[in-house]
């Protein structure tokens, strides 16, 4: 399947999700489609980017709409829809009562929105073709201009005055704010999910709150005791820096969690559970002391969220939420079904004694639901129900497919690469001894199903380029004799047949298959030769194998991106703008 064919398929799937108002899923599909296109200025890429802007607007992500629309208009200055959507977003930013924007900022958004709408109308008038869609867009722009004409300086002044008297919680425009503003009834601490096991999730909630709030304090004159002035405490920049440090550290451990190409492909947004997974598995005691995460969260959010509230938000632990997310309202009856993305149902079933953790993890990675996968991995790392992580990963369904095989079979979400890396990293983290660590990772990566297929071989048979590339990076094998024993003759024939098909599929696929072949014990990871003596292992990740120090040195330019020394660029704005708080 060519890149354009894959992009078209993902575009259509995204359109289906959008019509169902599943905006996050739609954005995931469209992001995968864009990643498969070499040119972001092609007509198909422009259409996909335009659709994404529409989803951001429907999700009330107005600043993201402005940013993405501006980038699109740089490539296509006559794209009327982007002008109209940017104008709409700026209109919302100007009049949004939940925002902490100043009077000057609101007036600037107001003027920019008027300019965008007028430019869009001029552009539509200059088009000689008659199109019902263009006429509808023109009417929307005219209605927006009419609304803007009624918003004068007094209106924005009143908003600013109201903000000065508002509470801290009114400034949280997110899932956190929704929880806090609904006055829900907490369930309290549950013995199956004690606060001690939710430490990292609670910190993640607090860190997100710090990124989204601005506190106002009064400065009191020490002599007179009267209020002398009012000032703002904005913790967002420090929060961005800490978030970036956490994720940069996460990318430095073996089996890096991010590609080294930069932040444009780092999806999905960092959720509470994904951020907690990074905190739980990536940060050493030295890093905790250096970053001072707990101290910062206490300082920034102690006046906003209590420990009980952070626990209730992290676990969706409210009576009203549990009642709403029940089978009586069409929600999941099985844990495997809920792990596809409904976190309130996951916690409801966990409190009720859910035991099918392996099935839940399998379904989460099969459908690319990263939040669900992170939730299950976190609970297993905390030994819920006394379960161990690696044995649970290796539990298989009726076809013999374990969790890694389900991740390899994810053809649609675009997040199979992240699922695979999370599973490998979790397996590596679960053991301390280097020998046991290597065996745990090899077993999770290379265990075959009932038909003799390993996850890497399954990804080859599906021509799933994303998983093939990831398996090559983390050192998966097409067949691992140490784990699965001698390969049956019929499987050898099938294996060779699959490999022969790749000769006509282009250089990229051929390179990936060669890389997968090179990860076997008998071949050097750089030159692909089988030496007479035992291969040397990389001292950091124990995955790459070399016949000599010369090959290891030559291979380091590529290997460093998947080894423990890998680093990524620090892009604070991206990290902060891609944080997703929990919602009821």
List the helices and strands and how they pair.
Elements: H1 3-19, H2 23-35, H3 43-58, H4 62-75, H5 80-95, H6 103-125, H7 132-149, H8 153-164, H9 175-181, H10 199-212, E1 214-220, E2 227-234, H11 236-250, E3 270-271, H12 272-282, H13 285-291, H14 293-301, H15 307-315, H16 319-324, H17 335-338, H18 343-351, H19 357-366, H20 370-381, H21 389-394, H22 403-408, H23 416-429, H24 434-446, H25 455-461, H26 465-474, H27 481-484, H28 489-501, H29 507-517, E4 536-537, E5 545-546, H30 549-559, H31 572-577, E6 579-580
Parallel strand pairs: 3-6
Antiparallel strand pairs: 1-2, 4-5
Helix pairs in contact: 1-2, 1-3, 2-3, 3-4, 3-5, 4-5, 5-6, 5-7, 6-7, 10-11, 10-12, 10-14, 10-15, 11-12, 12-20, 19-20, 20-23, 23-24, 23-26, 25-26, 26-29
Descriptive keywords:
two-stranded parallel ribbon; zinc; globular; 6 strands; mainly alpha; RPAP3; TPR-like_helical_dom_sf; two-stranded antiparallel ribbon; 584 residues
Summed up, what is this model?
The protein has 31 helices and 6 strands. It is mainly α and 584 residues long.
Textual characterization of the structure:
- Residues 82-104 are annotated as: Disordered.
- This is MYND-type domain-containing protein.
- It holds the Pfam family zf-MYND.
- One of its GO terms (cellular component) is protein folding chaperone complex.
- Residues 524-563 form the MYND-type domain.
- The protein has helices at 3-19, 23-35, 43-58, 62-75, 80-95, 103-125, 132-149, 153-164, 175-181, 199-212, 236-250, 272-282, 285-291, 293-301, 307-315, 319-324, 335-338, 343-351, 357-366, 370-381, 389-394, 403-408, 416-429, 434-446, 455-461, 465-474, 481-484, 489-501, 507-517, 549-559, 572-577, and strands at residues 214-220, 227-234, 270-271, 536-537, 545-546, 579-580.
- The strands form three sheets. A two-stranded antiparallel ribbon has the order 1-2. A two-stranded parallel ribbon has the order 3-6.
- Among the domains are: 3-167, Serine Threonine Protein Phosphatase 5, Tetratricopeptide repeat (Alpha Horseshoe), CATH 1.25.40.10; 168-324, no CATH class.
- The chain is globular.
- Helix 6 (103-125) packs antiparallel against helix 7 (132-149), helix 10 crosses helix 12 (272-282) and helix 26 (465-474) packs parallel to helix 29.
- It has 31 helices and six strands.
- With 584 residues, it is mostly helical.
- It starts with a helix and ends with a strand.
- Residues 163-173, 215-222, 227-231, 253-265 and 564-570 have low confidence and may be disordered.
- A hairpin with a 6-residue loop joins strand 1 and strand 2.
